[in-house]
Structure formats: C-alpha cells, structure tokens
Amino acid sequence: MPTASNSTKLKPTDSLDTRPAIFGRTVTSTFRKMSGFKHQPPGNLRTGMIPPIVFGSLFLNLPKLLKLRFYLKKERKKHPADDVRILFYSDNLDETNGIANNLRNVIPYMRTHGMNAFLAGNAFNTRPCGVVENGYCLLLPRMFSMEQLGYANSELAIPRVGPVLRLLKRYPVDLIEFETPSPGAWLVCFCAKVAGIKVFSHYRTDVPTYTKTLVKAKWMFHFVLRLMKIFYRMTRPVVSPCKDYANILTSQLKVPENQVQILPRGLPLEKFSQNLRGKGTWERFNGAGAPTDNTQTDVVQSNATQVRIARKVRFSFIGRISKEKNLEFLNSVWKKFAAKHKDVELMYVGYGWYLEEIKKFFEGDSSVHFAGEQGGEILAGLYADSDFFLFPSTTDTFGNVVVEAMSTGTPAIVSDYGGPHDIVMDEAAGRILPIDEDAWLNALEECRKLYLEEPDTYAKMRETAHERSLKYTMESSTKAQFDYFRKLKKEAYGI
After folding, report:
1. What burial class does residue 53 get, using C-beta atoms within 10 Å of its C-beta: 0-12 exposed, 13-18 middle, 19+ buried?
2. Is 389 helix (H, G, I), strand (E, B) or coil?
3. Using CA atoms, how far apart are residues 120 and 132, in angstroms rounded to an integer?
4. What is the DSSP letter of 82?
5. Each residue of 376-391: pLDDT tens digit?
6. Are 475 and 267 contacting, i.e. CB atoms less than 8 angstroms apart?
7. How far apart (Å, rounded) are the C-alpha atoms in residues 112 and 135?
8. What is the pLDDT of residue 206?
9. 8 Å CB contact between 131 and 4
10. Domains in the chain, CATH or no CATH each
C-alpha cells in the first residue's frame, strides 16, 4: 500500500481539512507540508499563471526526470510482461463528483482482484498538506490552485513534482490514464513523456460544453477547445464511454477514429438494491414522518381499474446540483407539472453551487424537497424509493447516477444526448427525450398515470430497468479495461 510520509509533523491546531468530512473517505497517511502559491479566485486572465508554472516545474525537474527514465527502463525489463501497472490521474478527486466517485469505487475493486492500479490527484486548497485516503488514493501537495471559472467548489490545480517523482520510483507504473485535460494533467503528462511512461486519456467530461454554458467570455470556449485538441493529441488513444462522445472526439477534437476506444464503465451495483424500497428513507426528507403500512404498496379496486393510494408519485434528481446538469430546464418543467397535480413530489439529492438558487426558486412549493448530500444506504434508499429518476443533462459522457437508479429498479427519464440514453436504451426502462418542455411535460404526465393506473406495466418497467443496469458490473468493465491496458503496454514497450 502506498504511504506518503511518516515524517509529517502537524501542530495541535492543524486540521487535515477545513471542509466537512466527505462520506466514505478516511485519511491513512499524510505528506509533509510544502510551500505553494496562495489559492487564487477565478479569473480569465489569472489562468495565464498556469503555463509558466507548468513549464517552469517541468524544466526545473528535467535532470530528475531523465534519471527516472533510465531507472524505469531497467526496472520494466524485470517485470512480467502480462502484468500491467497503471496510474489513474484526475485533478478533481478531492471533491464530490461522478468522476471521483466512480474512480474511488473502481480502483479498490481492481486492487482487491490482483490488478496493479493506483489513483492520484491534487489535495483541495482547504488541506494544509497532501494526504493518502483509504490506503490507495494519493492527494498530492499543491503548488498552485485557483477556483474554476463558472464552477464554484471546484478548482484547477498543479501538484508539486517532487512527490510525484518519488512515488513513481517507489511504485513504478507502465501506463498513466488522464481523466480530465486539467493543468495538473498537463504537467504530469509532460513529466511522464520525459520519463518514458506511456500515457493515454479518458474523455470523462464534456469540457467545451461546460465552458460554453458556465463561462461568460465567449473567447474562452475557443481557447479551451484549442488546448483540448493539443492535449488529446499528446494523450492518444482516447477512451470514450459512449458513441455520442466518440463522435465528438473525432469531429470536434480531431482524434483519428482508430485512436478512439469505447470501453464500458462499471459500478458497485451490490450497494444499490431493489430491496431498499419501502424502508422509510424517503419519508425522512419529505416531511411526511415515519411511514405507515399504507404508504408503500396499497392498491384498491375501482371500476376494474387498479389505483394506487396513500402517497404521492415520487420523482427525484440525484447528483451534483449545478447548471450544467440542465437543472434550470428541469425546474421550469416541474413548476408547470406540479401546478396541475397535488399528488406528485420531487426530491433533489446532492450538493452544488446552484442549490441555493433552486431553493429560492421553489420557496413555498410543498412539492419539492431537498435531502442534501447523502451516501451509503441512505442514498441507495432514496434511489429505490423514487418512482422515476429525472436526469435532463446533455453534458454527461456516461451517467453513473442513471445506472445506480436503474440498479434499484427505478426507471430513468433522460435526455437524448450523451451517455445516459445509451444506458436506458428505450421506453421499456424509462424515457429518452429531446430538451423540449412539452416533451418532458407529456412524459411526466404519462409516468404519473403509469404509476397510478397501470401497476403491472410499471412493475415490469422497474424490473427491466434493473436488468439493464447489470450490464455495468465492476467485473465485466474492469476485465475489459485490463485486457485493453495489456494491449497498450505491449504496443508501447514491445514486451
């Protein structure tokens, strides 16, 4: 297991992190404190500090990188050819988001199944030093960090190179996969190329669309797009989780088609069970109090039609509460839908910079509830208690939350662009819709009627949703990934 340093001396007044604890993360080791630039606020021109820091760090460490190159070349010859050692690098691991959550599930699974996988990123600016969490996730000390433009509670960061070099010598890797084209990824990429390590990337974030949506300065979109073309030229092949974004890679980012690889993703589906439905989790957050025997599945016979009684039809959105998830659109649709029905409710689960605006928008609206950021069995229970899961995002390359919802048997209503619609597939497990208010309003009406008046059809939909989620198991996805990684290693080193 990797450890950072046993020489770290923290003062009694020091805190490992000034933020509230993040669910499921435990510090197991710390790096020693290191100096760095003061954390910076967002700013278009302030991003100009990033290139000099990246290239300055690279040149200052060139002698050490060249020395590491010769060391790794000798060490690699001693290592079994079919055993791949891989490092996954992502700047945003020290936050709560789909990328971090997915990687923090995948890497420990790989390690417990005999695969040599490591995970690294930057420590958030609220930490006085870098840390290792849960014995495998290395959050490196920062040299520089700034708030990400248009994206509160997320940051751009550059790690200190020294700890990276020491870790690569202590835990040599054959491949490095970059999850986002961030400043830290640029620096680690340059260092890896000098050190003779094969690099490639995974298109996990639709950065151009995020930039267009969240940043006011229009020139930033073209600037970011140009930088991404360069980054993905340096880090080929590029892995995509779905066909839509494979097409974006070839059309917008000019990655040759033979350099794009579609690979499945996997999630720990055993954490999300249909059996958690009806255990009272939803009632903890909608103000209804403890459930009674009538609140779960009571059905009465009326004029040969089965009609459900005793509780409202439940819809949910679970994920990061941010504008790029198309939540302004969802808010508008829900306002119109709920105005027509008193027997529906919507639960927002998660946290993000847009949360307070949504609360103000729905102030006084009893149909909307907020559960905050949740994890573990509470999160799984909220998925399971939902009758329908709403996910209007058009910027998700995959959609972890869609798979999680469907794993608990909850049908998903998603947009017709990006990764989520590949997961739902067709109307047997939910609905796939264009971003059009009338289309979504009609779908919500249809879903409400389906739940209230067609229980057998609805039950079949829940079963189909669950069955389709099983395509995304950890076992199948990690096997496919490591088969591909072995191929990359053989092509890169001829062994």
Report:
1. middle
2. strand
3. 9
4. T
5. 999 999 999 999 999 9
6. no
7. 12
8. 75
9. yes
10. 27-265+475-493 (3.40.50.2000), 269-472 (3.40.50.2000)
List pLDDT tens digits, range 371-424: 999 999 999 999 999 999 999 998 888 889 999 999 999 999 999 988 899 999
- Nearest-angstrom CA–CA distance, 131 and 284: 35
Helix (H, G, I), strand (E, B) or coil at 7: coil
Mean of the per-residue pLDDT values of the chain: 88
User: In this model, does residue 234 exceed pLDDT 80?
Assistant: yes
Residue 192: both structure tokens together: 């890896």
Q: Inform me whether the pLDDT recorded for 304 exceeds 50.
A: no
Exposure class string for 463-477: b at 16+ Cβ within 10 A, else e: ebbbebbebbbbeeb
What 3-state class would DSSP assign to 430?
strand
| Burial class of residue 143 in the structure, from the number of CB atoms within 10 Å of its CB (0-12 exposed, 13-18 middle, 19+ buried) | buried
Residue 462 sits at φ, ψ, to 5 deg, of -60, -40
Tokens of 230: 């360069």
Run of H or E including 54: helix 50-60
Task: Tell me which residue has tokens 């995959």.
Answer: 398
User: What letter does residue 117 receive in the DSSP assignment?
Assistant: E
The number of residues making up the chain comes to: 495
pLDDT of residue 60: 95
Q: Which helix (H) or strand (E) holds 137?
A: strand 137-140
Give the global pTM: 0.80
Cα–Cα distance measured from residue 410 to residue 383, given in angstroms and rounded to the nearest whole number: 7
Say yes or no to pLDDT of 292 above 80: no
Structure tokens at 363: 């102030």
Evaluate whether 128 touches 16 at the Cβ level (below 8 Å): yes
